[in-house]
Amino acid sequence: MAGVEAEHSMGMRLLITGGSGFIGTDLIRFYEEKQVPILNLDWNPPLCPDQLPYWKEADILNGEACGQLIREFAPTHVVHLAARTDTDEATDVEAYRQNHEGTRILLEQLKSCSTIQRIIVTSTQFVCEAGYQPKDDLDFKPFTVYGESKRRTELITREAGLECCWTIIRPTTIWGPWSLRYRDVMFKVMRKGLYFHPGRKKVIRSYGYVGNVVWQIDRITHRTAWDGGWSGLLCRR
Q: Of 42, 57, 149, 53, whose CA–CA distance to 103 is shortest?
């Protein structure tokens, strides 16, 4: 198995959008150790200065500029993380235009790159409110405009007519190294004695560790195609 995985990584060229963020930083570190060629398209510089060589400043809403960088790099695999992820805006879904419209523009550019074997598009568990059990992967119940923007992202992905394999993932709230939110917020809450640790009852919302998310993403890159070349694996936990 190790030999198969090493062979898989040797032929891999990884494009990450939004790779300067928290999850992207850990993802780049994972593949950097495997010596996989990496391109990070992000309008922000990397959180980790050591990852500057992989970064190209880019806005996914600028399809022409991104498309040129993508074709020059010729990726085999794409992990689309770029998004506005806060829930501050309460009413205007267009405030999250980068999420749904940005995905549409990006996918159009990716379709012109014949080297791509698989695309992983990041959605969120917020496409359904906490406690709601969806009947299937098209049963949505977003409770924030951020969640609505990601619902649109999923539908745009499904309707994009991609010829390569594609996967939508729905991470829960993630913590771990490089997470500024936990450095700036969670530890302050704990110091004030306001943190309650779950007991024996089932929690409404769970938290995922970034290392597990990176491992899951890597597992997806090893999956084979079915159903005409696409997969709909949804990772919520």
A: 149
